[in-house]
């Protein structure tokens, strides 16, 4: 039995081009950014870096709230916090106000790692956006934030 090519329904636009679709473009840009990030931070994943940076910015916070702040679900943020804790970069403790909650904080080593990483992360952003002018960079960030 020969496989027949799929026929395009008449209601589908003949102007569709994958290379012009926002999801495809965002995925390609994300892959490029991920490669730049991985080269700059060989010992941290992007979620681990986001966790360190957000804890530095916000201070100790509940694990659940931290997950929301860095856009990770409860299971994922727990794994990230566990891995950072195993490296001595974060510590956890029961919340004194509610023992069901876990509070996450940076250790001194975690604070130093975040401080060391900030200029590296800024360089990653600059490299990711290198093809754009300063004005285009600001516009792109503004537009992407509008889509969040």
Question: Could you please describe the fold and organization of this structure?
Answer:
The protein has a domain of 103 residues: Orthogonal Bundle (Arc Repressor Mutant, subunit A). Helix content is 59%, strand content 11%. The mean pLDDT is 93. Strands 1-3-2 form a three-stranded antiparallel β-sheet. β2 and β3 form a beta hairpin. With 148 residues, it is mainly alpha-helical.
Low-confidence stretches: none
Radius of gyration: 21 Å
**SS-based class:** mainly alpha
Strand content: 5-15%
* Assembly category: single chain
Average pLDDT, rounded to a whole number, is 93
Q: Which strand order do you get reading across the main beta sheet? A: 1-3-2
CATH architecture field of one domain: Orthogonal Bundle
Largest sheet: 3 strands, antiparallel
| Helix segment tally | 6
CATH-assigned homologous superfamily of one domain:
Winged helix-like DNA-binding domain superfamily/Winged helix DNA-binding domain
State the order of secondary-structure elements, H for helix, E for strand.
HHEHHEEHH
| Spatial separation of the terminal alpha carbons | 47 Å
For the secondary structure, the number of strands is 3
> Which fold does the CATH topology of one domain refer to?
Arc Repressor Mutant, subunit A
Q: Looking at the structure, what is the overall shape? A: extended
Which bin fits the share of residues in helices? 55-70%
* CATH C-level category of one domain: Mainly Alpha
Please outline the helices and strands:
Elements: H1 22-40, H2 46-58, E1 61-62, H3 63-69, H4 74-86, E2 90-95, E3 98-106, H5 108-128, H6 134-147
